[in-house]
């Protein structure tokens, strides 16, 4: 288990620590709390709802990878069924800062990779930056998303982002996390990791460029983590598919040196491409990571 997680555990009240320590120290802990686990924490800790989520933030922040800033941010999103998904900020050395993943993006993409289609609220230990406010404005249900910060009353996203610019301004109806798979054929792909990347492309959100794309990461023990591209109406807050796959990898408790190979699949002849940025980020992480690439067509 990560040292940061052990340290975070000691920051919890004793009653809560007793409940969650067995879960967190389990190697299969996926940085997610089921509705049943939430109910158990509430019953045994005298904390409930937002107070519980705020108290759990150090556990989320323990997943931060911050070699540049050493400034750790934690975020917890709640799915419609009450599941809590943790997230933290992730930085990469050796590439431009635009590759950075913010904690809110991490928690949201983490929930997405596990099948959440709508989120009710997000709890964060610092006020969301403008980039994240715009990223969250792309979400399915953004109009009803609640933001909870320490020592601040809960407020809707649109209180933090008045007069917003969003998908509707570009005539786009689809929203991030909406489960509307594309129909790119993937059955003929005979490299399993590339097929996983192509399947992720089929679940990507790319209504602006049409570059449906996905990445799959395989770890040294054979686990595979897929990441779908998350495009944004304001373009720059878009989250590339490599970042989403690395979020899934990180939140499952793996480190970058556990990565054995990576695959990227994206559309043929698209107006945008993730190829050079994906290669640059992987090269900066470890130039020896095997990388496979393929384009897809309808
Ligand atoms: Zn942010």
TrEMBL record:
Q: What is its EC number?
A: 3.5.4.5
How is the cofactor bound, as the UniProt entry phrases it? Binds 1 zinc ion.
Q: Which residues form the CMP/dCMP-type deaminase domain?
A: 48-168, 188-298
Which reaction does this enzyme catalyse, per its entry?
2'-deoxycytidine + H2O + H(+) = 2'-deoxyuridine + NH4(+); cytidine + H2O + H(+) = uridine + NH4(+)
Q: Which InterPro entries match?
A: APOBEC/CMP_deaminase_Zn-bd, CMP_dCMP_dom, Cyd/dCyd_deaminase_Zn-bd, Cyt/Deoxycyt_deaminase, Cyt_deam_dimer, Cytidine_deaminase-like, Cytidine_deaminase_bacteria
The enzyme's main class, written as a single word, is: hydrolase
- Which residues are noted in the entry as Zn(2+)-binding? 102, 129, 132
- Catalytic residues as annotated in Swiss-Prot or TrEMBL: 104 (proton donor)
List required co-factors: Zn(2+)
Keywords, A to Z, come to: Hydrolase, Metal-binding, Zinc
Give residues annotated as binding substrate. 89-91
Q: How does it assemble?
A: Homodimer.
What family does the database annotate?
A: Belongs to the cytidine and deoxycytidylate deaminase family.
Q: What does this protein do?
A: This enzyme scavenges exogenous and endogenous cytidine and 2'-deoxycytidine for UMP synthesis.
What is the name listed in the Swiss-Prot or TrEMBL entry for this protein? Answer: Cytidine deaminase
Protein species of origin: Salinivibrio costicola subsp. alcaliphilus
Read off the lineage from the record.
Bacteria, Pseudomonadati, Pseudomonadota, Gammaproteobacteria, Vibrionales
